Amino acid sequence: MSTRKLEIIGNSALITLNGIKKVPAKIDTGAESSSVWASDITMDAEKRLSFCLFAPGSEFYTGERIETNDYKAMLVRNSTGQEKVRYRVRLPVRIGKRRINAGFTLADRSKNNFPILIGRRLLKNRFLVDVSQLEVPYPPRTQDMELNDELADDPCAFHGKYFQET
Asked: For residue 39, which phi and psi values (nearest 5 degrees)?
């Protein structure tokens, strides 16, 4: 390990990605690679990969197309074991005081709480994660509140609906 002092970050951060400032990112030490919400991913006849960061409707979407010949394919496995092939590109990112040219897989993260996920490859030998620190509050999970209301109304019916053996 390097003798450089590691910066301490929390389990979420506001980062700058490719010049777009104050983008919320989830810090995930359980994920190997980092991922960014990308849309309109295309390949032209000259084998250039082209994409937009984020998507229409996102407050971070600029519509700017990024084109690159520097990309790879990666097989990514999520926490439930599903595998997907994704492109991996390098993008400039600033986290805290560190500027890094880091690898990100391109994914549809429109349904995630955070449009960017920072994984172990980017964190290693650069940051220590203190999970008690929270730069970006997690949004309330309305689905959990609705489930608990349903559970309180009729616990037996709830159990039968969601946990009945088939």
From this structure: -135, 165
**Is the Cβ–Cβ distance between 13 and 95 less than 8 Å?**
yes
Cα–Cα nearest to 147, from 137, 164, 159, 138 = 159
One pLDDT digit (tens) per residue for the chain, 166 residues: 555 789 999 999 999 999 999 999 999 999 999 999 999 999 999 999 999 999 999 999 999 999 999 999 999 987 788 899 999 999 999 999 999 999 999 999 999 999 999 999 999 999 999 988 877 877 767 777 888 888 999 999 999 888 876 5
Per the CB < 8 A criterion, the answer to whether 52 and 64 are in contact is yes
d(CA 22, CA 120) in angstroms, rounded, equals 21
Question: Rounded CA gap, 57 and 42, in Å?
Answer: 20
CB 126, CB 109: distance < 8 Å: no
Quickly count helices (H) and strands (E) in the chain.
3, 11
Give phi and psi for 68, each to the nearest 5.
-150, 150
d(CA 27, CA 111): 17
Contact 55, 69 (CB under 8 A): no
Q: Half-sphere exposure of residue 83, counting CA atoms within 13 Å on the CB side?
A: 4
The two structure tokens encoding residue 128: 């220590």
